[in-house]
Design goal:
This is Capsule assembly Wzi family protein. This protein is mainly beta. The chain is built from six helices and 21 strands. It has one domain: Capsule assembly protein Wzi (Porin). The strands form two sheets. The chain has an 18-stranded antiparallel beta barrel. Strands 15-16 form a two-stranded antiparallel sheet. The longest helix is centred in the first third of the chain and has 12 residues. It is globular and about 70 Å long.
């Protein structure tokens, strides 16, 4: 089994998210076979890319703020109206030159479509959860901020009728490979999602709800025991047998008589690092506009999931989209993110409903874990909302616990706005966020404020499939270093 996993990992490592540098309206110029290239550069004052130029770009940005890059993408999308079976594939390659030259494969996949079902493998550019994926600050646990984790998946990716036309569902089930990271190597991703919709594609009002569940599990830590009583692993590794996998998929803390080979840490908590979200929302057709509202509720380790202690935490969003062609206004997204509860107190809704208080006072420390010390990160980048800034990005004097990724700043309150308009033929997109940051529950810092913004213009050239893109980013505040930067790029699509 290990040999088969290694073979799959090798294949998928060659299949490593599109639009990482923002392809404006590329769907309008996409054929069954699509090729595009982009050449551009980043410049900045402190040699780092500003926050909203880097965030939610699927990991496909240079590590230096003064870099030149060249990017190519090949994509095939078969006509889905013909036949029960069709295949899709994509390969996206970026070459970076500068102080830190590198080759990045942000997206590559093979998808086999069987009617509503899709079997796929590779690395995907995707945002998961109920959210406005085009302009959001980022879905709270899977925002598209980091490179995609190589995985194989079976899915129903679009809402499919269930019994009656006004009831639909979609979902997926995945197995992925984290590979070799900073603190642990050879560990896995388990992921599943199930979302339901009341209302058909043509309904004026639709209501949504769903669950998204991720688990980091298995693998071998690169660190040793911190002392004689360290029970985080047994025989130098984390459990990864079939019993463990069952506990990963169904984390109900099942007991068994023979506990040989399992650490007390796992038996007392959960097997693996469980992270997820419960989403609710709805949209309404207002004629010339479409209005979407949503709330993403974060959970970890299963504790806040079962007691709803932290219901006030999460991402609150409103998205307004124009339904008319040729208008100046295209889209507006307003969001509010809160992560300050973390199980430290009982929120108002559970108290109002009289729900049992099973885990009150048991903090969950979002995105952190005692076994997987990297936390909820891949290649040192945040997998979830980028507004939880990892330690290497924040000012050194704000790092109370500099050896961990998210221990320094995972308690925040943030407001965000994203706006997309079109002036004549120029597409303008702006993003601005303002956050107040409190450190972590066990490493608090005096509250510090941070403002970041970016404005991008995509200017069509004489050839309708070519664009000049200019992006200006600014960071001001006491959490990360002040910065000013620019990106200039030429894009061409066939």
């Amino acid at each position: 089994m290990r040999g088969l996993q290694c073979l799959l990992l090798f294949i998928l490592s060659l299949v490593k998210g599109t639009e990482a540098y923002g392809q404006p309206d590329s769907s309008k110029v996409r054929n069954k076979f699509h090729y595009g290239f982009e050449i551009g550069s980043f410049f900045s004052l402190n040699n780092k890319i500003p926050f909203w130029q880097k965030a939610n770009q699927f990991g496909a940005v240079p590590q230096s703020g003064n870099s030149l890059y060249f990017r190519q993408m090949i994509e095939s999308k078969t006509d889905t109206s013909v036949g029960f079976f069709h295949a899709d594939y994509c390969l996206d390659l970026a070459t970076v030159v500068g102080e830190k030259p590198m080759i990045i494969i942000p997206e590559a996949f093979l998808k086999l479509n069987f009617g509503p079902f899709v079997i796929s493998g590779g690395r995907f550019k995707e945002v998961l959860g109920l959210v406005d994926s085009t302009l959001s600050s980022g879905s709270i646990t899977w925002s598209g901020n980091s490179l995609g984790i190589p995985q194989v998946r079976i899915a129903i990716p679009e809402y499919t009728k269930l019994f009656v036309p006004w009831l639909g569902f979609k979902g997926h089930y995945s197995h992925g490979w984290f590979g070799d990271q900073v603190s642990v190597k050879d560990y896995y991703l388990h992921q599943k999602a199930l979302y339901g919709r009341i209302g058909s594609d043509k309904s004026r009002l639709r209501v949504y709800g769903g669950l998204l569940h991720h688990v980091q599990w298995g693998g071998e830590p690169k660190y040793g025991p911190s002392g004689p009583g360290d029970d985080r692993f047994t025989d130098g590794a984390f459990a990864e047998d079939w019993f463990t996998y069952g506990q990963v998929v169904f984390p109900f803390r099942a007991l068994r008589e023979d506990t040989t080979g399992y650490g007390d840490f796992e038996l007392m908590n959960r097997f693996g690092n469980h992270i997820g979200q419960i989403d609710i929302g709805g949209d309404i057709n207002l004629g010339s506009m479409n209005l979407l509202v949503y709330k993403q509720n974060i959970f970890e380790t299963g504790q806040t999931f079962s007691s709803l202690t932290n219901m006030d935490d999460g991402l609150y969003g409103v998205a307004i989209k124009s339904r008319r062609e040729g208008t100046v206004f295209k889209r507006l997204v307003l969001e509010y993110l809160r992560t300050t509860n973390q199980g430290s107190y009982r929120s108002g809704l559970p108290r109002l409903l009289g729900l049992p208080d099973r885990y009150f006072g048991t903090e969950t420390y979002y995105f952190n874990h005692m076994q997987y010390i990297d936390g909820w990160a891949y290649e040192s980048e945040t997998i979830g909302t980028p507004l939880l800034v990892p330690q290497e990005e924040i000012r050194p004097e704000k790092q109370s616990y500099p050896d961990a990724v998210f221990y320094n700043n995972n308690r925040i309150i943030a407001a965000y706005a994203g706006l997309n308009v079109r002036l004549n033929s120029i597409d303008l997109t702006s993003r601005v966020s303002y956050s107040r940051n409190y450190g972590a529950l066990f490493t608090p810092i005096p509250p510090v404020d941070q403002m970041s913004m970016a404005v991008q213009a995509a200017i069509p050239l004489k050839n309708k499939n070519a664009f000049l893109k200019v992006n200006i980013g600014i960071d001001q505040g006491d959490l990360i270093n002040d910065n000013y930067g620019a990106q200039i790029a030429y894009q061409r699509f066939w």
